Amino acid sequence: MAEVTIYTTQFCPYCVRAKRLLDSKQVSYDEIPVDADSEQRQIMMERSQGHTVPQIFIDDQHVGGCDELYALEAAGQLDSRLGLNNT
Fold this sequence. Notes:
The longest helix has 12 residues, at 13-24. Strands 2-1-3-4 form a four-stranded mixed beta sheet, with helices on both faces. It has helices spanning 13-24, 38-48, 66-74, 78-82, and strands at residues 4-8, 30-33, 55-58, 61-64. β3 (55-58) and β4 form a beta hairpin. It has a single domain, classed as Glutaredoxin. By secondary structure, the chain is α+β, with helices and mostly antiparallel strands.
């Protein structure tokens, strides 16, 4: 299964939505809150070249945010990126 990292803030509805999709697929992920952690926020911005949350990585490959995660799902590509078997 893929390694997923998601940078979030506490009151971000897009973060909640992205985590809900990952949870529905029973995928574990490392959540890194950046609300009060300027060092982690800086790392997130350097890794993703973005400053908004969520920023999502699958196996160290930047996916983007919530919209991009749902676009992968709509295109039928998310399960394979996550390493899930379609049985």
